[in-house]
């Protein structure tokens, strides 16, 4: 390989690193001050790009000058900054005190809303942007042509870093941001209006995301997938760099930019996997990222959000369970549609209970549970379609596939906690998604595979429904039993105080790992059953939206309840199945519902039911 | 005439389901140092937090400089001239000494000489030598001084000082007592929560004893020192 | 008989020597206090013995076995119980459930998937709670207890593993003075009755001088004095660097009931 080629490759890596840093710096600053991981940061980036492809061409009509191009880019960033202010004032302000799981979900609700609104405003087509006047040419470097605009981008990252450094060390606003990153409450007790500080921080963070998006328009068309694709990378950068650390984000962005630029030469297909492997490696050695620091222990011990004392099932619960069971078994008496929905509800109920086994019982907030569901589905589906095996062994393979994947990823996941853990689970789910998506020869890529049909005896919808009922209910009852057993209690104990658990001789990491594996296996079984109920498999089974669906189910059902997620899955899936065909704006509706749930109903259906019964008649 | 700067009546507060304060009544006169004493868990820190708005009072009134402040956000209370020095110091360890002071800075009310870093360095000479040092690299005693200095930068009229001697070596405790006395000389009113009678006796004019969330006794420090029955009933061994 | 023998423990943080060749020994049934100013290396030393920190040099021997650098869960299985400066308990459990959990761990039953945890080791847990005077509160959620009672439950949790050595980091921190005396008396009683060695750090001079058999004074990572409470109190160097005036008074006061 020639040196000049390597140099150009390095330069293009630096250009991506630079762009990535601009975006990630905003995410990390917002996290530092507000302690919220803002999923909608990717939406701000996307909005920056859409605004820029609207504003910049309009400005260039007046004069095709570089100045006007950058005025347009900056104007887009400022508008996005204002949208950040709106989000802070309308939403974030209300959720600063709720557990991080709810915060992540609420900001994901914004992602869904923005996706639909962007489609409404700009339509479904990609919109190419203008090239930057004055930077349209190529520059010759050691006989290789390299775009001038990319060279410009390389400069942007360090320039933004320098400006941020000045802001953080030379202005009162910056000093307050750094102080608040460490102790928000104390900053308030010293007379600083936190609301203003947080609003200002959101302006800064969103504007950086907007700037990042607007700067991309000469390179990529504004499109509706920019948000989730960039947010994953931005998460990875902030996690590797250490959340809240701007210099850390810079180093991490450089590492990732260069890794991608050179990785593509060696493993063209799995650059994404390389990035995530880097993240996993860094987190194993430095669990709080390169320049991050451990979360300060919360001053006062608080009751964990989740299952407290699982207790016995009382008469009302028993009646409810019997009624629900009877309805499930009686569905074939209604019609085929009811059976279809009922089967799916059972499957999702198992997935949700297995997720809540982690979240509610173990305090392990997995944001990528769909990975194990999806890999279970692929495990079963591939055996049938590619290996020609019948349903029975495939259904045995499904939990094994989900469990093995969970054991592999869980090995890294259980080393972390809190928000880092959530982001790592999501990252692993994205790896699994990428592998399934890109390995077209085996998985059928985007299209997936069809022909995953049950064995002959179970081919009718009704029989398959009963088969699903037996398997899912057995698995749910088993998981419930485990929650009451010493193993489940140990997971709760480790959630309450890992330090105390360690001191009484519990290997916390090992128990969490076993729990993660068990939950993955249960999700895998659900996935396998789902594959046969649909007759097909495709990558959406592993996607972030699927993980969010599961989380919405347990949130709706109530994460402090053992069986609430069953009700949550039933309510969520029936509503989704009913409304999805009726509206073009399902995401808008879902996004608003998730936010409403977080704001109004944080204890879910089970919580609402419990408080209803506690009220004197 | 006794000029009251802080007047608390019937203050109730707690954490979640737990109630800690069951109607606290207390006053603090302008320029006075009062010690809020009592066993741990009696509600001393909770009282100070509830006055400062860090915990929302569930009932009762808190009047500061003639204004009702119960239920106000902490930053608004601070801006009215009430300073708060927390128990666990809570300095900004990533920031330098000067930057810590900058976070606390607020304009002085008209007619009063404002605290500046230079004045504070004269007050706490140890800090002067390390103005550009990262606060996290300082010793516990130095951090405790910084947290008081940081609050003084807001030019408060009164200061709530939570357990300033807790966790410090006795030599440093003596320096803390000295600092409180000099704050008094500057005309500041100080409500200091304290378990150590020696410390309280060294700095305060008056003591209030909290037990189970209410004020059970108040009077001169000298009386308290002389009266072993009261001490045994409410304070120590 | 020597239970714990610490030889030349050394720990560096960056350029700072937090513990400099610290050596001491502890007998069965003995209470040994480590005191010293903040930042003197008390916690560092303590955490090296307790398995939270790996020493850069030196050794820790427990009943003749080398346990240097073992994690605290392994130490627990070898008979080391632990309480923390801020009590660490399982907040979502009842008082009884906390002790049952410790017993489940002690019996190696934490991986059972099907048995019912709520009925296991009930009687043993109640007996332990009875020993610390908390049996009457067994059914309450631990989050509802007063802090002093939480510390008692924490002691019962530590005792569940039938320890030979108890490590107590500032056992009386955050407690009322009267609760402090009662807790230390309880610990001392149990330690002497069952020949458990107790190593503790403490800021409260009353607790130290009233209950420790021997005291180590640590300053800047080095032991500057060691001996009986009387010897340590009389040491002019100790008075100069650590106790200061009020501390010396407290140290004197603590023994007043005994002497007069």
UniProtKB/TrEMBL annotation, chain A:
<feature type="transmembrane region" description="Helical">
    <location>
        <begin position="394"/>
        <end position="414"/>
    </location>
</feature>
<feature type="transmembrane region" description="Helical">
    <location>
        <begin position="266"/>
        <end position="285"/>
    </location>
</feature>
<feature type="transmembrane region" description="Helical">
    <location>
        <begin position="553"/>
        <end position="575"/>
    </location>
</feature>
<feature type="transmembrane region" description="Helical">
    <location>
        <begin position="587"/>
        <end position="612"/>
    </location>
</feature>
<keyword id="KW-0029">Amino-acid transport</keyword>
<dbReference type="InterPro" id="IPR043428">
    <property type="entry name" value="LivM-like"/>
</dbReference>
<feature type="transmembrane region" description="Helical">
    <location>
        <begin position="43"/>
        <end position="60"/>
    </location>
</feature>
<protein>
    <submittedName>
        <fullName>Branched-chain amino acid ABC transporter permease</fullName>
    </submittedName>
</protein>
<dbReference type="Pfam" id="PF02653">
    <property type="entry name" value="BPD_transp_2"/>
</dbReference>
<dbReference type="GO" id="GO:0015658">
    <property type="term" value="F:branched-chain amino acid transmembrane transporter activity"/>
</dbReference>
<keyword id="KW-0472">Membrane</keyword>
<dbReference type="InterPro" id="IPR001851">
    <property type="entry name" value="ABC_transp_permease"/>
</dbReference>
<feature type="transmembrane region" description="Helical">
    <location>
        <begin position="6"/>
        <end position="31"/>
    </location>
</feature>
<feature type="transmembrane region" description="Helical">
    <location>
        <begin position="66"/>
        <end position="92"/>
    </location>
</feature>
<feature type="transmembrane region" description="Helical">
    <location>
        <begin position="421"/>
        <end position="440"/>
    </location>
</feature>
Automatic annotation (TrEMBL), chain B:
<feature type="domain" description="ABC transporter">
    <location>
        <begin position="6"/>
        <end position="237"/>
    </location>
</feature>
<dbReference type="GO" id="GO:0015807">
    <property type="term" value="P:L-amino acid transport"/>
</dbReference>
<dbReference type="Pfam" id="PF00005">
    <property type="entry name" value="ABC_tran"/>
</dbReference>
<keyword id="KW-0067">ATP-binding</keyword>
<dbReference type="GO" id="GO:0005524">
    <property type="term" value="F:ATP binding"/>
</dbReference>
<dbReference type="InterPro" id="IPR003593">
    <property type="entry name" value="AAA+_ATPase"/>
</dbReference>
<dbReference type="InterPro" id="IPR017871">
    <property type="entry name" value="ABC_transporter-like_CS"/>
</dbReference>
<protein>
    <submittedName>
        <fullName>ABC transporter ATP-binding protein</fullName>
    </submittedName>
</protein>
<dbReference type="GO" id="GO:0015658">
    <property type="term" value="F:branched-chain amino acid transmembrane transporter activity"/>
</dbReference>
<dbReference type="InterPro" id="IPR003439">
    <property type="entry name" value="ABC_transporter-like_ATP-bd"/>
</dbReference>
<dbReference type="GO" id="GO:0016887">
    <property type="term" value="F:ATP hydrolysis activity"/>
</dbReference>
<keyword id="KW-0813">Transport</keyword>
<dbReference type="InterPro" id="IPR027417">
    <property type="entry name" value="P-loop_NTPase"/>
</dbReference>
<keyword id="KW-0029">Amino-acid transport</keyword>
<dbReference type="InterPro" id="IPR052156">
    <property type="entry name" value="BCAA_Transport_ATP-bd_LivF"/>
</dbReference>
UniProtKB/TrEMBL annotation, chain C:
<dbReference type="InterPro" id="IPR003439">
    <property type="entry name" value="ABC_transporter-like_ATP-bd"/>
</dbReference>
<dbReference type="GO" id="GO:0005524">
    <property type="term" value="F:ATP binding"/>
</dbReference>
<feature type="domain" description="ABC transporter">
    <location>
        <begin position="4"/>
        <end position="245"/>
    </location>
</feature>
<dbReference type="InterPro" id="IPR032823">
    <property type="entry name" value="BCA_ABC_TP_C"/>
</dbReference>
<protein>
    <submittedName>
        <fullName>ABC transporter ATP-binding protein</fullName>
    </submittedName>
</protein>
<dbReference type="GO" id="GO:0015192">
    <property type="term" value="F:L-phenylalanine transmembrane transporter activity"/>
</dbReference>
<dbReference type="Pfam" id="PF12399">
    <property type="entry name" value="BCA_ABC_TP_C"/>
</dbReference>
<dbReference type="InterPro" id="IPR027417">
    <property type="entry name" value="P-loop_NTPase"/>
</dbReference>
<dbReference type="GO" id="GO:1903806">
    <property type="term" value="P:L-isoleucine import across plasma membrane"/>
</dbReference>
<dbReference type="GO" id="GO:0005886">
    <property type="term" value="C:plasma membrane"/>
</dbReference>
<dbReference type="InterPro" id="IPR003593">
    <property type="entry name" value="AAA+_ATPase"/>
</dbReference>
<keyword id="KW-0067">ATP-binding</keyword>
<dbReference type="GO" id="GO:1903805">
    <property type="term" value="P:L-valine import across plasma membrane"/>
</dbReference>
<dbReference type="GO" id="GO:0016887">
    <property type="term" value="F:ATP hydrolysis activity"/>
</dbReference>
<dbReference type="InterPro" id="IPR051120">
    <property type="entry name" value="ABC_AA/LPS_Transport"/>
</dbReference>
């Amino acid at each position: 390989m020639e040196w000049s080629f390597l140099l150009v490759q390095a330069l293009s890596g630096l250009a991506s690193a630079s762009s990535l840093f601009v975006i990630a710096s905003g995410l990390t600053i917002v996290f530092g001050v507000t302690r919220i991981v803002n999923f909608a940061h990717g939406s701000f980036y996307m909005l920056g790009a859409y605004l820029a492809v609207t504003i910049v061409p309009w400005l260039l009509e007046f004069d095709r000058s570089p100045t006007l191009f950058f005025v347009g880019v900056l104007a887009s960033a400022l508008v996005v900054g204002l949208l950040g202010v709106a989000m802070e004032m309308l939403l974030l302000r209300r959720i600063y005190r709720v557990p991080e799981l709810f915060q992540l979900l609420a900001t994901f609700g914004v992602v869904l809303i923005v996706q639909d609104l962007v489609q409404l405003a700009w339509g479904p087509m990609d919109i190419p942007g203008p090239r930057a006047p004055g930077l349209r040419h190529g520059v010759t470097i050691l006989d290789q042509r390299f775009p001038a605009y990319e060279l410009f981008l390389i400069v942007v990252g360090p320039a933004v870093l320098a400006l941020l450094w000045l802001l953080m060390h030379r202005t009162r606003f910056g000093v307050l941001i750094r102080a608040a990153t460490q102790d928000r409450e104390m900053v308030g007790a010293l007379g600083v209006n936190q609301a203003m500080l947080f609003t200002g921080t959101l302006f800064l963070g969103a504007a950086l995301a907007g700037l990042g998006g607007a700067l991309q328009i000469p390179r990529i068309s504004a499109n509706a997938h920019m948000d989730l694709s960039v947010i994953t990378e931005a998460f990875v950068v902030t996690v590797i760099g250490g959340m809240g650390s701007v210099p850390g984000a810079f180093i991490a962005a450089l590492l990732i930019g260069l890794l991608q630029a050179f990785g593509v030469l060696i493993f063209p297909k799995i650059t994404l996997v390389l990035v995530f492997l880097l993240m996993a490696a860094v987190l194993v050695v430095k669990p709080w990222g390169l320049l991050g620091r451990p979360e300060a222990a919360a001053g006062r011990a608080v009751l964990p959000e989740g299952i407290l004392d699982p207790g016995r099932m009382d008469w009302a619960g028993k009646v409810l369970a019997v009624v629900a069971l009877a309805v499930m078994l009686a569905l074939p008496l209604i019609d085929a549609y009811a059976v279809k929905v009922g089967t799916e509800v059972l499957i999702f109920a198992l997935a949700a209970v297995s997720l809540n086994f982690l979240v509610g019982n173990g305090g392990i907030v997995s944001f990528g549970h769909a990975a194990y569901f999806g890999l279970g589905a692929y495990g079963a589906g591939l055996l049938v379609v590619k290996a020609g095996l019948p349903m029975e062994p495939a259904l045995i393979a499904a939990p094994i596939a989900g469990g093995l994947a969970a054991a592999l990823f869980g090995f890294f996941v259980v080393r972390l906690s809190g928000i880092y853990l959530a982001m790592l689970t999501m990252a692993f789910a994205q790896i699994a998604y990428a592998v399934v998506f890109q390995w077209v020869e085996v998985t059928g890529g985007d299209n997936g595979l069809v022909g995953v049909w049950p064995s002959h005896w179970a081919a009718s919808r009704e029989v398959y429904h009963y088969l699903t009922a037996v398997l899912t209910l057995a698995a749910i009852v088993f998981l419930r039993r485990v929650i009451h057993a010493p193993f489940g209690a140990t997971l709760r104990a480790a959630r309450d105080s890992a330090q105390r658990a360690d001191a009484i001789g519990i290997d916390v990491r090992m128990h969490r790992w076993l729990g993660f594996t068990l939950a993955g296996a249960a999700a895998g079984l659900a996935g396998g059953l789902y594959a046969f109920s649909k007759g097909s498999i495709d990558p959406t089974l592993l996607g972030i939206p699927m993980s969010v669906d599961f989380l919405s189910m347990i949130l709706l059902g109530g994460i402090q309840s053992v069986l609430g997620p069953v009700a949550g899955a039933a309510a969520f899936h029936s509503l989704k199945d009913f409304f999805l065909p009726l509206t073009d704006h399902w995401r808008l509706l879902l996004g608003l519902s998730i936010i409403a749930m977080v704001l109004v109903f944080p204890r879910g259906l089970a919580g609402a039911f419990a408080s209803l019964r506690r009220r004197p008649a | 005439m006794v000029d009251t700067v802080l007047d608390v009546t019937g203050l109730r507060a707690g954490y979640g389901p737990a109630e800690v304060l069951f109607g606290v009544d207390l006053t603090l006169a302008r320029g006075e140092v009062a010690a809020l004493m009592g066993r741990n868990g009696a509600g001393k820190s909770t009282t100070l937090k509830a006055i400062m708005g860090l915990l929302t009072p569930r009932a009762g009134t808190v009047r500061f400089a003639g204004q009702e402040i119960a239920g106000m956000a902490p930053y608004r209370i601070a801006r009215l001239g009430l300073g708060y020095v927390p128990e666990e110091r809570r300095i900004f360890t990533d920031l330098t000494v000067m930057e810590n002071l900058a976070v606390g800075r607020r304009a002085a009310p008209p007619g009063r000489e404002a605290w500046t870093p230079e004045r504070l360095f004269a007050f706490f000479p140890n800090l002067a030598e390390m103005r550009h040092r990262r606060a996290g690299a300082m010793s516990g005693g130095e951090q405790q001084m910084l947290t008081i200095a940081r609050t003084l930068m807001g030019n408060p009229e009164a200061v709530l000082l939570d357990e300033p001697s807790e966790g410090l070596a006795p030599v440093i405790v003596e320096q803390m007592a000295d600092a409180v006395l000099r704050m008094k000389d500057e005309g500041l009113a100080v409500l200091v929560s304290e378990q150590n009678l020696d410390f309280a006796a060294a700095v305060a004019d008056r003591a209030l004893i909290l037990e189970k969330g209410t004020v059970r006794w108040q009077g001169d420090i000298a009386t308290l020192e002389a009266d072993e029955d009261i001490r045994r009933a409410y304070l120590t061994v | 008989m020597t239970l714990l023998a610490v030889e030349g423990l050394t720990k560096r943080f960056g350029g700072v020597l937090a513990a400099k060749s610290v050596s001491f020994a502890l007998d069965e049934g003995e209470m040994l206090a480590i005191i010293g100013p903040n930042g003197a290396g008390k916690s560092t030393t303590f955490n090296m013995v307790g398995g939270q920190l790996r020493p850069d040099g030196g050794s820790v021997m427990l009943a003749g076995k080398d346990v240097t650098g073992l994690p605290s869960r392994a130490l627990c299985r070898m008979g080391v119980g632990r309480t923390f400066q801020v009590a660490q308990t399982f907040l979502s459990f009842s008082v009884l459930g906390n002790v049952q959990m410790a017993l489940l761990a002690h019996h190696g039953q934490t991986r059972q998937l099907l048995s019912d945890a709520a009925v296991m080791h009930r009687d043993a847990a109640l007996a332990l709670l009875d020993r610390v005077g908390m049996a009457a509160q067994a059914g309450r959620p631990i989050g509802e207890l007063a802090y002093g009672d939480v510390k008692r439950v924490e002691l019962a949790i530590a005792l569940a593993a039938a320890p030979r050595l108890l490590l107590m980091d500032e056992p009386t921190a955050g407690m009322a003075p009267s609760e402090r005396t009662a807790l230390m008396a309880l610990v001392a009683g149990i330690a002497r009755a069952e020949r458990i060695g107790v190593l503790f750090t403490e800021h409260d001079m009353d607790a130290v001088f009233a209950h420790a058999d021997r005291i180590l004074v640590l300053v800047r990572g080095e032991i500057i004095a060691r001996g009986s409470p009387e010897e340590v109190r009389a040491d002019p160097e100790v008075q100069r660097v650590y106790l200061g005036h009020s501390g010396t008074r407290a140290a004197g006061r603590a023994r007043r009931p005994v002497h007069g």
